[in-house]
Write a structure and sequence with these properties.
Aldehyde Dehydrogenase, Chain A, domain 2; single chain; 3-stranded mixed sheet; alpha/beta; 10 helices; Aldehyde Dehydrogenase, Chain A, domain 1; 5-stranded parallel sheet; 14 strands; 21% strand; 44% helix; 2 domains
Length: 337
């Protein structure tokens, strides 16, 4: 498979091709086709990304709020105009149907919108005579290089929870996306470049545990934001905290649905199907358990069973869009089964 396209890192404003030989396969979940490979970072790649982000930080930190805001607005305009391109990338590598992919991007755009108004969030406070003859000031400053470790199930939305605000506040970013669907991260990086973001402010480092540990253990990286499983969230929090980093580690979010006896059962069944099977069933907050109270359980179960049997499963890019796309890998399908 060496003739397949290779997805490189994005470092310092351009594609970065490693000298290492370790790669991971990227599949089209709908067909099972091995479509490309993604580079897995070496220690040298990790150091190069961190150095690029650290070098870019002083200039970006000192860039005026007006200049930063103009770049973020331009990024928003480009993303809004070209979001269909990104949706197709997500569907081809994750498997969710195109409308789900578009919805994911829309939710990410909400945070980009929020970042467009960031000057108001960066204002400090000044209290006169907090105590006799004592005034109190607060000052908000960027941290420096920040790391983002994002999961496979929302390759655009979850990174966009973090990087628009981090960049707006004057930080520089290293994003480590999932190696299962890595192309969305590179597409976003190229869009930042087109929007006028200086080189080194947004970097993409592909990889596995080696890349993750490189970010966690680096004294240069000042914070880590993570979304994923609970065991990995615990590992990331414990490891990063040892080096004094600020950490957001969001792990495990499957929901329970409680249905009371007076519920509209048709509405409840519809919502259970939407929540359980949307985004190929791989939504962090998917409904995986339903607790039906008292006498309604059998009726609700029958309604849900009927709806499940009507679900159309298939390739999310099909013009007659199915209800449910495939799970991301055969191994994941087997685990769920």
């Amino acid at each position: 498979m060496s003739d397949l396209p290779l997805i490189p890192h994005w470092i310092n404003g351009t594609e970065h091709h490693t000298t290492g030989t370790n790669t991971a396969p990227v599949y089209n979940p709908a067909t099972g086709e091995h479509t490309r490979n993604v580079t897995l970072a070496t220690e040298s790649d990790i150091n190069t990304a961190i150095t690029a982000a650290a070098t870019a930080f002083p200039t970006w930190r000192d860039t005026s709020l007006a200049r930063r805001q103009a770049i973020i607005f331009r990024f928003r305009e480009l993303l809004t105009t070209r979001k269909n391109e990104l949706a197709h990338i997500i569907t081809h590598e994750h498997g969710k149907v195109l409308s789900d992919a578009a919805g994911e991007i829309g939710r990410g755009l909400e945070i980009v919108d929020l970042a467009c108004g960031f000057p108001h969030f960066l204002k400090g406070d000044h209290t006169i005579n907090a105590s006799t003859g004592i005034d109190v000031h607060s000052l908000k400053q960027p941290l420096g290089v920040v790391g983002i470790i994002s999961p496979f199930n929302f390759p655009a939305m979850v990174p966009m929870w973090f990087f628009p605000l981090a960049i707006a506040a004057g930080n520089t970013v290293i994003l480590k996306p999932s190696e299962k669907d890595p192309s969305a991260a590179n597409w976003l990086a190229a869009l930042w470049k087109e929007a006028g973001l200086p080189d080194g402010v947004f970097n993409v480092l592909h990889g596995d545990k080696t890349a993750v540990d490189g970010l966690l253990n680096s004294p240069v990286v000042q914070s880590i934001s993570f979304v994923g499983s609970t065991p990995i969230a615990k590992y990331i929090y414990e490891t990063a905290a040892k080096t004094g980093k600020r950490v957001q580690a969001l792990g495990g979010a499957k929901n329970h649905m409680l249905v009371l006896p007076d519920a509209d059962l048709d509405h409840a069944a519809d919502q259970a199907i939407n929540a359980g099977y949307g985004s190929a069933g791989e939504r962090c907050m998917a409904i995986s358990v339903i607790l039906a109270v008292e006498t309604i359980a059998d009726d609700l179960t029958a309604k849900i069973k009927d709806r499940i049997q009507q679900l159309r499963i298939g390739d999310g890019t099909n013009k007659h869009e199915p209800d449910l796309g495939p799970l991301i890998t055969a191994a994941h399908r087997d685990k769920v089964a």
